[in-house]
Amino acid sequence: MSSPLTTAQLDTLREQGFVVARDFVPDAQRDGLLALARAQLDQAVAPVEYEADLAYPGAPASRQAEGGGTVRRLLDAYARDPLFAAWATDAAVAASLHRYFGQGAVLSRAHHNCVMTKHPRFGSLTGWHRDIRYWSFDREDLVSTWLALGEETAHNGGLWLVPGSHTMTLAADRFDAAQFLREDLPDNAALIATAVSPELAPGDVLFFHCRTLHAAGRNQSDRVKFSVVHTYHAVDTHPVPGTRSAGKPEVPLDSP
């Protein structure tokens, strides 16, 4: 049984914009999720997102190019299998978020809600951004969980994050048209220089705020990296009607 985040961890999440919960997921549950993810990746079980479709730096030029069949994400993890649904609604996650929000939490199925797969050679890098850039909610206070199903380091494409960036007000011209932070600007370069890349062991969970600046490099190892990612908000936060954020039914978590 997993234990919820401690008071100290919740304080770190609020102050830093992210926190790592070590050994958050029991080995048997983690191993079951990894085996399922591998099997579904091998069969490219729909719905999936391909690297070539996003055209991020390092991705294959098209579906027809070498590596064009490389999957980036297994989408809608919650609906894929009861094992994924159980993790998405895990009691320790629910208790942690209840304490963070001060009220019940809700799983968004419209954002993240996926198995992230980062492949050697054809896995792309992701520039500096805030997740809220393409989300539409009446409050910008959402938290995501990033479950490492294997080791995650800077070498195999692990996340980099800028501490405290979730509270920063950054002018619009510091971002490009796609809302990625412009790395050519001196002020942005200085900000990026403060980033850290926490190493995650299998079963560790990174909790991070939707406004925290983060990025990820390419996978320079010889193995696919698997992570399960979900996003949550408080019950009094709502997606804007008619937007992508309101595109799938949400799942209230059981209150502790």
Automatic annotation (TrEMBL):
| Record carries keyword Cell membrane | no
Q: Where is this region: Disordered?
A: 237-256
What stretches pass through the bilayer? none
- UniProt entry keywords in alphabetical sequence: Dioxygenase, Oxidoreductase
Annotated coiled-coil segments of the chain:
none
Classification via Pfam families? PhyH (PF05721)
Q: Which InterPro entries match?
A: Phytyl_CoA_dOase-like
Keyword presence, Oxidoreductase: yes
Which GO molecular function entries does the Swiss-Prot or TrEMBL record give? 2-oxoglutarate-dependent dioxygenase activity; iron ion binding
Cofactor(s) the record lists: Fe(2+)
Q: What is this protein called?
A: Phytanoyl-CoA dioxygenase
Q: Which organism is it from?
A: Bordetella genomosp. 11
